[in-house]
Amino acid sequence: MRKLLYLTPVLLGLVLGGLFMYVLLSDLDTETIPTPLLNQALPEFSLPTVQDSEQIVTKADLDGEAYILNVWATWCITCRIEHPFLNKLSQEGVRVIGLDYKDTREEATEWLTQFGNPYRLNLFDEEGAFGFNLGVTGAPETYFIRSDGTVAYKHISAINQTNWDEELKAIYDEL
């Protein structure tokens, strides 16, 4: 009985290691994990902006025009890689709304000052409650939102020139 107790962590480690290797070596596409919100209304929210804790934005404030909702954070290394391309998209007229996820206002403000601000609005989700309602699994994630406030598409990982040209621009143009 005691030997079994000592072997349990080893067996658990082997099982977890096997699962890790399966996911690592399989053909799973982790950038297109479906969202249950597809073709559903974006969840209701009431959030302050990064720049002004007194400015409260709701879902209704964003309805009426298509946009991409980019989930980002200062602690996210991939977000730093993605950020220059978001600046470029914004300059080209793409309506980009930011969702600063599980961050501090001071760090987010410093980030935007240092790297530029591609966001027409930048929502501040300090506790991650809205992100939870969206089904955010990490950052960056980008939701393509139609003018009626429904979710058209969810992209996980960084947006870059290649995936924008090959797939994402067409999705945005259809919004």
In short:
This protein has 175 residues and is of the alpha/beta class. It has helices at 2-25, 59-62, 77-91, 105-115, 129-134, 161-174; strands at residues 46-48, 56-58, 67-72, 96-101, 121-125, 141-145, 151-156.
Name its key features.
single chain, alpha/beta, Glutaredoxin, five-stranded mixed beta sheet, 6 helices
List the helices and strands and how they pair.
Layout: H1 2-25, E1 46-48, E2 56-58, H2 59-62, E3 67-72, H3 77-91, E4 96-101, H4 105-115, E5 121-125, H5 129-134, E6 141-145, E7 151-156, H6 161-174
Parallel strand pairs: 3-4, 4-5
Antiparallel strand pairs: 1-2, 3-6, 6-7
Notes on the protein architecture:
By secondary structure, this protein is α/β, with parallel strands linked by helices. The protein has one domain: Glutaredoxin (3-Layer(aba) Sandwich), CATH 3.40.30. Helices cover 42% and strands 19% of the residues. The chain has 6 helices and 7 strands. It has helices at 2-25, 59-62, 77-91, 105-115, 129-134, 161-174; strands spanning 46-48, 56-58, 67-72, 96-101, 121-125, 141-145, 151-156. Helix 4 links the parallel strand 4 (96-101) and strand 5. The termini are far apart. Mean pLDDT is 88; it is low at 26-31.
